[in-house]
Amino acid sequence: MTKRFGAVRAVDDLSLDIPAGQTVALLGPNGAGKSTGIRLLLGLLAADSGTVRVFGGAPETAIRSGRLAAMPQEGGLVSRTTVGELLGFVSGTYRAPLPLREVMAVAGLEELAGRRVERLSGGQAQRLRFALALAGDPELILLDEPTAALDVRARREFWESMRAFAARGRTVLFSTHYLEEADEYADRVVVIDRGRIVADGTSREIKRLVSLTTVSVTVSAPETAWLELLPGVTSVESRGERAHLRTRDADATVLALAEAGAVRDLEVVPAALEDAFIALTGADA
Ligand SMILES: Nc1ncnc2c1ncn2[C@@H]1O[C@H](COP(=O)(O)OP(=O)(O)OP(=O)(O)O)[C@@H](O)[C@H]1O
Question: pTM of this prediction?
Answer without folding.
Answer: 0.79
